[in-house]
Amino acid sequence: MYDLPDIQACSPDYPINLTRVGATGVKKLVKVERGGDERPIVLISRFEVFVDLPSDRKGANLSRNFEVIDAVLEEEISRPVYEIEELCGKIATGLLARHEYATRAEVKMKSEYIVRRQTPATKITCQEVVDIFAEAVARAGPTSDLKKIVGAEVVGMTACPCAQEIMRGQVISELANLGLDAETARNFAEKIPVATHNQRGRGSISIEVKNQRCISIDRIIRIIEESMSSRVYGLLKRPDEALVVSRAHSNPKFVEDCVRSMAQRVVESFDELLDGAVVTIKQINEESIHQHNAFAERTATMGELRAELSSCM
Amino acid sequence: MYDLPDIQACSPDYPINLTRVGATGVKKLVKVERGGDERPIVLISRFEVFVDLPSDRKGANLSRNFEVIDAVLEEEISRPVYEIEELCGKIATGLLARHEYATRAEVKMKSEYIVRRQTPATKITCQEVVDIFAEAVARAGPTSDLKKIVGAEVVGMTACPCAQEIMRGQVISELANLGLDAETARNFAEKIPVATHNQRGRGSISIEVKNQRCISIDRIIRIIEESMSSRVYGLLKRPDEALVVSRAHSNPKFVEDCVRSMAQRVVESFDELLDGAVVTIKQINEESIHQHNAFAERTATMGELRAELSSCM
Amino acid sequence: MYDLPDIQACSPDYPINLTRVGATGVKKLVKVERGGDERPIVLISRFEVFVDLPSDRKGANLSRNFEVIDAVLEEEISRPVYEIEELCGKIATGLLARHEYATRAEVKMKSEYIVRRQTPATKITCQEVVDIFAEAVARAGPTSDLKKIVGAEVVGMTACPCAQEIMRGQVISELANLGLDAETARNFAEKIPVATHNQRGRGSISIEVKNQRCISIDRIIRIIEESMSSRVYGLLKRPDEALVVSRAHSNPKFVEDCVRSMAQRVVESFDELLDGAVVTIKQINEESIHQHNAFAERTATMGELRAELSSCM
Amino acid sequence: MYDLPDIQACSPDYPINLTRVGATGVKKLVKVERGGDERPIVLISRFEVFVDLPSDRKGANLSRNFEVIDAVLEEEISRPVYEIEELCGKIATGLLARHEYATRAEVKMKSEYIVRRQTPATKITCQEVVDIFAEAVARAGPTSDLKKIVGAEVVGMTACPCAQEIMRGQVISELANLGLDAETARNFAEKIPVATHNQRGRGSISIEVKNQRCISIDRIIRIIEESMSSRVYGLLKRPDEALVVSRAHSNPKFVEDCVRSMAQRVVESFDELLDGAVVTIKQINEESIHQHNAFAERTATMGELRAELSSCM
After folding, report:
1. What are B179-216's pLDDT values in tens digits?
2. Neighbour tally for A170: CB within 10 Å
3. Distance (Å) from the C-alpha of residue D31 to the closest C-alpha of chain B?
4. A85 touches A108 (CB < 8 A)
5. Residue C288 and residue D191: Cβ atoms within 8 Å?
6. What domains can you pick out in chain B, each with its CATH number?
7. Which of B63, B255, C16, D118 supports an S-S bond with B260, CB 3.0-4.6 Å?
8. Confidence at residue D35, expressed as pLDDT on a 0 to 100 scale
9. Residue A54 in 3-state DSSP?
10. pLDDT tens-digit readout, B228-279
11. DSSP secondary-structure letter at B310?
C-alpha cells in the first residue's frame, strides 16, 4: 500500500486544547445478561466516545479511533457483559492506552433493556422495555482513577394528590347530603377510589462511583418502578386494570414525591455505596391536564442524602 | 458568467418515470391570520414540494426548483394568508406552470398555530399550541382540478369508561356496607367523580376537498377539542383543575368514542361539504397504564358518514 | 373473581364504522435469523396492530386485544423467524381469528437489523445497522387473501453529478493554461477525482405481494446499497476512505438516478415477482449545501416497471 | 369559591431537598427583534422553568407556578425583546420573587430564528433558519447575582482535509504520467477543486456571563457560519452552487478545526467579555462516509482561551 499523508498529526491553525474529540451515534451490538436462568440477549446500543486533544495536534485520528473502538467492543461482546458501566470503563481505558496524546477518555452508552414482570392480578408474564445507560471517564495516571456512571429510565403511572383531595372534598359534601355524619363520610371517602388526573411518568436514577465496585441495574429499575403511584404493564386483563387503577389512586404522588421516594429507597438499598457517590434522580410527569410536563430533580452525594434522611429513619 | 452544463436535461441511464421529485424539510416563514381583532402572526412552517418527472429527463432541476418555490412563497407571504390550503394550492399551481415537463405538483405544509382559550373556572386567558397542516395536488389540464387538504392535531384529555365502571362497582359495594339501598348507592356512584385511568390524547381531523371552497381550520380545532373527555390548558388554578378533572370523569371516552364524536360533529358542522369530500379522523391515547398507545381511525367520504348517522339524527 | 362489566360490547353513542382500532408503540423482542452460519439475534421491534370495528360495537376490547397479540408474538418468537412479513402475516391472521366482529386485521413492524460488511480496501469486517420493516393485512374470507409488505431503508453516500460537471469545466480551463490540448485535458479531467458536494443519502424499497411467497430482505438491502454513489462504513482506515471517496466521485448520482437504479435492479433481481406486485422506491439526500433534503420516489407495479425498462434491456 | 386544600404546603414523607422543581415543554409566543429596519417576528419558543424546594415542603405549587410564568412572559412579550437571555433573566428573577421558599430559579428557552442571507454569486436574498437558546439562573440575595447564557446552533458544510490530501496525491501521480514536473504538478493540484467527502456540519457556541451586559446573538451566528468550510443556503442557482463547492474544497476542515476557528473568532470578536465568562464550542459533522457523526468540543473561560491564543496573535 502506498504511503498516505497523516494530516491529523500536523499543527493546527490555532493552538487551542480540545476537551472532547470523537464520535456520536455509533451503533453496536452488545450482549446483555439478564441474571437468573434467563438467556442473555444481544441489543443494539448507541455509543459516544471521546478523547481530549492537545493544542499542538490538528486531529484525533478519527479513522484510527473507530478501529480502536470496534476492536475493544468486539472483544467485550464475545463474553457476557454483566455490568454495562464495566463495559464503558474498559473501552475508556482502551482508548486512553491507544491515544498516546490523550489524557482523558470518555465513553457513553444507551440501550433498551427487557425486564419480565407479572400482571398484578392474573399473574401473566409480560415484557417491559426500560432505557438503561452508562458512562465511564478514564484519566491518564493511576489506573484506579476511573469514574463510572450507571442508570435507568422507567415509565410508570402517577396520580395527582392535590386534585384528588379536592375531589374527595366534593365526595364528602355529597355524602353529607345523604345524611352521613362527618367522620363516616371522611372514612368512606378515604376508602373509595376518588378521581384525580393521572398520567405516564418517567423516573430516572443515575449513580456515579469512583474506584468502587458495580451497582446492580436491576435494583435501580426496581426502585424507580416502586416510587411512582403504580407500575405500567404491556398487558392488562380487566381485573389487572382494576387493580392498577386502585393502587395508583390509593398512592397519589407529585413529581416531588416520586423523587423523594427514589432518594429514600436508594439510601435504603445501596448501603455499600461510599458517601462520595453522586446520585441524580429525576421524575417527569406527562400531565394529562396540560400539554407541558411537570419535572423534579435532585442531585446529591450519598452522604448528603443520608444526612437529610437521618432524622426520619 | 460562463456557460454552465445542464446535466438535468440529459437522458437518464434507465427510462423510468418518477412519481415525485422535490425537496423535504424546507422551512419558511408564513404569516397566519387568526381572525377577529387579533393581529396575524408569522410562523416558521415546514414544507415538502414535489413534481413528477418523465422517463426521458435525468433530473428535475432542483436548484431552479427551489428558486421557484421561494418566489411563490415570498409573494404569498407578503399578504395575509387566510387559509393554509389555499397557500399550498397556489404553490402547487405555480410549480406546475414553471416545470414544463411535469403533469402533477404536490405541496405539503405543517405548522404550529396559537389559539387563545379561557381557563374553565377562573376565566384567565391562556395560549394553546396546536399543529395544523395542509396539502394541495395540482394536475396539468383544467385549472379547477386542484385537490386540497386541511387539518389539525390537538392535544386533550381522555378518561377510560371501562376502568371507571369497574371502580364504580367497588364504590357501590362499599356503599352497601354502609347500609345504603341499591338504588341510592347506584345514584350516588353516578354522581361522584369515580377514579379511572386518564391521559393525554391526540385527536386529528383532515378534510380533503376538490373544486370546492375552503374549510375553516378554527372549526376543525373546536371539534377536536370538544370530542375528548376534556380540553387541556397551559394554566390551571386550583378551581380550574378541579373542574377539568370533574368534567373528564363525567365524560369518559375510549379512542373509539372520540373518533365517533368527531365524525358526528364534522357531519353536523360542515353542511356545505359535498358528499365526495374525504374525511380522515384519528385519536391516539397515550395510555397512563401502558407504555403503548391506543389508536382509532376512520377514513370515509362525507356521503358515507352522513348515511351511517342518518339513522340517529 | 367478581363479574366485571363489558363496556366495550355496548352500543356506541354514534353508529359509525371504524377503519382501524388498536395499539401503536408496542415494543416486543423478535428473534431474527441472519442466514448462513451466523447466529440469530434478538431485537426489540416496534409494532402497530389494528382491526376494524363495526358500527354497533362501542370498543375493540383493547385489553383483551393486547393479550392476543402477546400470545401470537410469544409463539412466533420461540422459533426462528426467517421472514418478518411472515411474522406480521401470522399475527394478522391470528387477530382476525380472535376478533369475531372484525373483517380486517393489519400489522406493521419496524426493527433495526445488523448486516456484516468488509471495508473496501483493508477487508476488515464491520457491522452496519439498517432499518427493516414489514406489514400484513388479512381480510375475513379465503385465507389466501393476505397482503404482505417487506422493505428496508439503508444509509449510503451520494455525490452530485451537476456540481461535479461544473467543477470539471474549471479543471479543463486550468489544464488549457498549462498548454494541454482539449482532448488530453478532457480525458485527464474525466480520470481524476474532481470535487462535488456529497452527502448521506437514505434509499428505501418496499415490496407488496399478494398470495405469493416471500421476498429476501437481504437482496433488498444489497440493491439499495449498490444504487447510491458509494456505501458507507462504520470503520474506514485511510486506504478505505480513499477508495470510498474515489468510488463515489466516479459514480455521481442525483436522487432521481438512485431511484431509477433501484428500479432497474429490482426488475433484474426479482424475476419471480408477479406483475401485480407493488414496488415503492424512495431516495432522500441530506444535501451538504442546503438545510433541506432532496427527494425522489416511484410507486409502480412490477408490470409497469418491466414495461418501461423493456426498451433498454 | 369554596376553600380548596393546599396539599403542596404539607410536609413531605421524606425530608429531602429538591434541586429543581418545575415544568418542561412549555410553549409560548416570543417576539424577537431582528435589528436594522426589519420588522420583529413572533416565534413559538419552548421553555423550561424551575425553582428549588426545601425539605419541609411537599410541593412547589406547580399550578400557581404556571400562572406566574405566564404573567411574566405575557408582560415581556408586549414589548420588543432585544436579547433572549435578558428575557430569561427577568423570568428567573420574577419566579424567585414569587416563590418565597425558593433560593434559586432557572429558566431555559429554545427557539428557531430567521436570518437573511444573499446567495454567494447571484446575490438573491434567502432565509436561513438557525436554532437559538438562552438560560438564566437567579439566586436569592444580591440582585446582581444573575448568571445568563446565550447561544446558537447553525448548519454549514465541512469538507475533510485528510481525504482531500490523499486524493491530491492521486492527481499528482496522474499528472506525472502526463509528463509534468513535480513542482508544476503540485501547484496545479493545489489550485483545482480536488474531491473529498463533505457533509452537513452543525456548529454551536454558548457564552455564559455573570453580572455583565449582553452578547449579540447575531455576532455568534456569524462566527459559527464563518468557521466551517462553507455556509449552506436555502436557494442556490447553478453559479452559486459552483461557488459553494469551490469555497468548501479550498477550505477543508476537520471538526477540530471548526472548533478552533470558532474559539479564535470568539476571542477576536468579544473583546468586552470578562476573563471569567465561560464559552462552550461544539462541532458535529454528519459524515457522508459513515452512519455516525464526528464530534469536537471545547469548554473554557475566556481567560483560558486568550492565554492559549496569545502565542499566535
Report:
1. 889 999 999 999 999 999 999 999 999 999 997 777 88
2. 19
3. 10
4. no
5. no
6. 1-143 (3.10.270.10), 150-160+197-313 (3.10.270.10)
7. C16
8. 59
9. coil
10. 999 999 989 889 999 999 999 999 999 999 999 999 999 999 999 999 999 9
11. G
Neighbouring chains of D at 3+ CB pairs under 8 Å are A, B, C
Q: Do A63 and C127 touch (CB under 8 A)?
A: no
Residues 6 or more apart whose CB falls under 8 angstroms from that of D191 comprise: C174
Q: Residue C1's pLDDT is what?
A: 40
Concatenated DSSP letters for C195-238? ---EEEEEEEEEEEEES--PPPHHHHHHHHHHTSSEE--S---H
Which residue among D26, D127, D236 places its CB closest to the CB of B29? D127
Any residues with CB less than 8 A from the CB of C121 and at least 6 apart, and which? A1, C237, C239, C240, C242, C243
- Whether D192 sits inside 8 A of C194 (CB atoms) is yes
| Residue whose cell numbers read 509534468 | D180
Per-residue burial over B115-140, b = 16 or more CB atoms within 10 Å of its CB, e = otherwise:
bebebbbeebebbbbbebbbbbbbbe
Say if the Cβ atoms of B167 and A245 lie within 8 Å: yes
Look up residue B18 and give its amino acid. Answer: L
Q: Amino acid identity, residue B49?
A: V
Task: Answer with the residue of higher pLDDT: D115 or A232.
Answer: A232
Q: B4-44: per-residue pLDDT in tens? A: 778 888 899 999 999 999 999 999 888 766 556 666 667 78
Q: Which three cell numbers stand for residue C45?
A: 421491534
ipTM, interface predicted TM-score of the complex: 0.92
Confidence of residue D119 (pLDDT cuts 50, 70, 90): very high
Q: CB neighbours of B30 closer than 8 A, spacing ≥ 6?
A: B42, B43, B44, B45, B73, B76, B77, B81, B84, B87, B109, B111
Q: Identity (one letter) of the amino acid at A210?
A: K
Mark D55-84 as b/e (b = at least 16 C-beta within 10 Å): eebbbbbbbbbbbbbbebbeebbeeebebb
Calculate how close chain C gets to A146, using CA atoms only, in Å. 27
Number of C-alpha atoms within 13 angstroms, CB side, residue B122?
16
